[in-house]
């Protein structure tokens, strides 16, 4: 019956290919040309792989269409050409990767004067990127012969497609020996140094932004690759350069456009100034009303930097932050921007870091009777709990904010968005008062509060915090276990252990990186900070993220101690070990469905 009615149909593309005078444009007009190409229509592929067709396809993605064409159809054929060239069909990949004349046509696109057409740049980058992944050796050999290749790519870095192309070279080359060869080539071309030079006040904003993002992505990709590879693999040369003193010094110099100094602490006043006088931002409409003066990305990343520095407990850094009263300023922002949970989490980390370390002039505990016996030594310049409770008035702020929120809610208003993080901070104080490295000092500081304030705090702890203890109780402050968002995250996740393991390793890495940064280079105070005009602050708004990423995270020790990670792994494995003999899955036994259901719940 099937053959009787002849339901087998012939593609219209096949009908076109029956004509001797069919053109590439006619085939590209067909809606199913890409589908037929990916379906390995042999007649179509043989036609497309002809020299004149391949040249026309490459020309379409590298030549600006006529301005006389209707706007909506100007890039129709270039788009289809790009999809055909990157359809991941072997015959097209082989033709494009092996024909040097076609590669030359592609390369000439980079030799144009900037700016490149962003759409054509994306077509070019996608095509070259596909070749890097599929015809790696041929394309890498071709590009390495071009002495000015990296310079041309950086010349057009204002186009985000060029940033993508660089990252393809770093992440998509296989096997590992060839990838290492490419990394050494990029390092010889001084890629990191040239990207750093682009992060400067005198450069175009798009170039600055893309260059800084590329550096951040190089760090991320290099670390991902290092974690996946075996220890015997050679170190990443680009990452090694990024970790160097010169690179970090160059970034700081370009950010603040001052003299070339390595010390990060000498620039803390500049970061502090950003908290006080950030780049101007227009009012924005939010779900809770109009925000006349948004917090902004710059101040958020400064808060992130401060949190990371405090976690290292590096003496000179903490002393400088204390003298600048940075924590007091961050708490001001915490209570001003009640709906910015990203900021609240960073301030929470700052408080945790301070409470986690013995503070200045730690006093002996009540159990120390022998006066000849000295208490454990504490760093004379460690972050000051005394400053947190006295200068920053942490307890009073917690109580005032809680009472204000209760009044708002009693009047029918909405609970403030920072109350979850405020609850955690309050519990940190209580937990450390009961058992913590600064237990004795916090007890003394609480006793020194004004009598009315002390009474309010005791009532608050005994009544309000105990009211819903399962929800409010947190473990003794540990930055490994802290996580962001609201107080309503006590709901059990289906995969909590995998996520907590990942977070623990991430936090451990950050602390190790920052500590090594401090240990390697040291810090000294500098004089007064330079004044910044609005243009400089606008630039800093773009560059704060890369400074935080590079200055805080890149200087990891070459042979970092992985004890914390191994402990997490052992803990993760232990959860599947019931301290019983391993069950023999082949043993005949009675099946108990209730027990199995319980096991699945675990």
Automatic annotation (TrEMBL):
InterPro entries: SAPS. GO terms for molecular function: protein phosphatase binding; protein phosphatase regulator activity. It comes from the Eukaryota. Residues 361-377 have a biased composition (Basic and acidic residues). One of its GO terms (cellular component) is nucleus. Residues 361-386 are annotated as: Disordered. Belongs to the SAPS family. This is Protein phosphatase 6, regulatory subunit 2a. It comes from Salarias fasciatus. The gene is ppp6r2a.
């Amino acid at each position: 019956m099937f053959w009787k009615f002849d339901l087998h149909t012939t593609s219209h593309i096949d009908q076109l290919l029956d004509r001797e005078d069919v053109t590439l444009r006619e085939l590209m007009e067909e809606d199913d040309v890409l589908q037929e190409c990916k379906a390995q229509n042999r007649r179509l592929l043989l036609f497309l792989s002809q020299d004149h067709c391949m040249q026309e396809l490459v020309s379409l993605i590298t030549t600006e269409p006529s301005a006389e064409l209707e706007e909506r159809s100007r890039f129709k054929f270039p788009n289809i050409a790009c999809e055909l060239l990157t359809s991941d069909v072997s015959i097209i990949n082989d033709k494009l990767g092996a024909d040097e004349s076609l590669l030359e046509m592609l390369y000439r696109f980079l030799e144009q004067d900037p700016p490149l057409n962003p759409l054509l740049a994306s077509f070019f980058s996608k095509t070259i990127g596909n070749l890097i992944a599929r015809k790696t050796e041929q394309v890498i050999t071709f590009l390495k012969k071009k002495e000015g290749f990296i310079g041309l790519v950086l010349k057009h870095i204002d186009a985000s497609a060029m940033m993508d192309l660089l990252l393809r070279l770093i992440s998509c080359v296989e096997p590992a020996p060839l990838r290492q060869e490419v990394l050494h080539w990029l390092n010889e071309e001084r890629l990191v140094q040239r990207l750093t030079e682009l992060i400067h006040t005198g450069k175009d904003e798009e170039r600055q932004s893309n260059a800084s993002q590329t550096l951040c992505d190089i760090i991320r990709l290099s670390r991902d690759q290092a974690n996946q590879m075996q220890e015997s693999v050679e170190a990443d040369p680009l990452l090694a350069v990024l970790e160097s003193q010169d690179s970090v010094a160059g970034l700081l110099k370009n950010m603040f456009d001052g003299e070339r100094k390595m010390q990060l602490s000498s620039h803390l006043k500049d970061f502090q100034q950003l908290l006080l006088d950030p780049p101007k931002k227009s009012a924005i409409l939010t779900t809770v009303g109009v925000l006349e003066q948004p917090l902004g990305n710059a101040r958020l990343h400064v808060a992130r930097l401060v949190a990371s520095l405090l976690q290292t407990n590096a003496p000179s850094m903490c002393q400088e932050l204390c003298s600048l009263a940075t924590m007091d300023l961050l708490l001001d922002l915490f209570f001003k921007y009640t709906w910015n949970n990203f900021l609240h989490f960073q301030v929470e980390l700052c408080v945790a870091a301070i409470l986690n370390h013995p503070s200045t002039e730690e006093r002996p505990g009540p159990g120390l009777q022998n006066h000849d016996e000295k208490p454990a030594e504490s760093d004379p310049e460690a972050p000051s709990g005394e400053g947190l409770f006295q200068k920053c008035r942490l307890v009073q702020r917690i109580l005032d904010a809680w009472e204000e929120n209760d009044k708002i809610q009693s009047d029918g208003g909405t609970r403030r968005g920072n109350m979850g993080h405020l609850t955690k901070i309050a519990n940190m104080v209580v937990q450390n008062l009961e058992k913590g490295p600064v237990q004795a000092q916090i007890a003394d500081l609480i006793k020194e509060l004004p009598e009315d304030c002390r009474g309010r705090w005791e009532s608050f702890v005994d009544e309000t915090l105990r009211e819903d203890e399962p929800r409010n109780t947190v473990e003794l402050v540990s930055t490994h276990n802290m996580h962001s968002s609201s107080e309503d995250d006590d709901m059990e996740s289906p995969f909590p252990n995998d996520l907590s393991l990942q977070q623990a390793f991430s936090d451990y890495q950050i602390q190790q990186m920052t500590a090594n940064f401090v240990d390697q280079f040291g810090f000294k105070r500098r004089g007064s900070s330079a004044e910044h005009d609005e243009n400089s602050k606008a630039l800093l708004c773009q560059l704060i993220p890369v400074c935080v990423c590079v200055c805080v995270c890149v200087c990891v020790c070459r042979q970092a101690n992985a004890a914390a990670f191994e402990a997490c792994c052992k803990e993760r494995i232990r959860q599947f070990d019931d301290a019983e003999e391993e069950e023999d899955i082949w043993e005949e036994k009675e099946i108990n469905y209730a027990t199995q259901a319980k096991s699945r719940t675990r």
